[in-house]
Amino acid sequence: MGIQNLSALMTSSDNRSASSGFTLIEVVLVLVISGILAAAAIPVMTGMYNRTRISGAADLVTDVLEHAKGRAKANPIAYCGVYFEYGTNRYYIFDDVNKNRSYDSNDSIRKREDLGGPFEFTASSSDPLPNQSVIFRADGAAVAAGEIDIQLGSKTRTIGVSSATGFIRRL
Questions:
Q1: Which among 163, 108, 109 has a CA at the least distance from the CA of 136?
Q2: 33-46 pLDDT, tens per residue?
């Protein structure tokens, strides 16, 4: 009786080891499903990444404009402005010493910088900035109202400036 039980136990153990694990079809099926899910997720993740990058760039431009506005309030002798170089990602913070309300060779450049990344400044189609710049007076108001677009591929963020108050807003 002991040998029969041992034989039955070995037979049952052999059947278990032969049926444990995954078949090739199951493994291939899991890989195909994983590939389909990854292919569907990549465009969504790329879109989220680009939205985050352009929002960060818009935040930076808003901060730069706020800095220029604060500088103008602190220095009543000169207007302070930000010049945006269209077609690039470069901007200049400058003192409009001669108060001609535009960026020119007589102005004192305080900071010249790139946004970093593949961004591009473009004129807003609805309310473009005059002379590609925003200039603030000592009272914090802007000399003229306008909007600037920041583009990253097909994504665009617009920043507007009110002339009466100098209020800076992301649209």
A1: 163
A2: 998 888 888 877 87
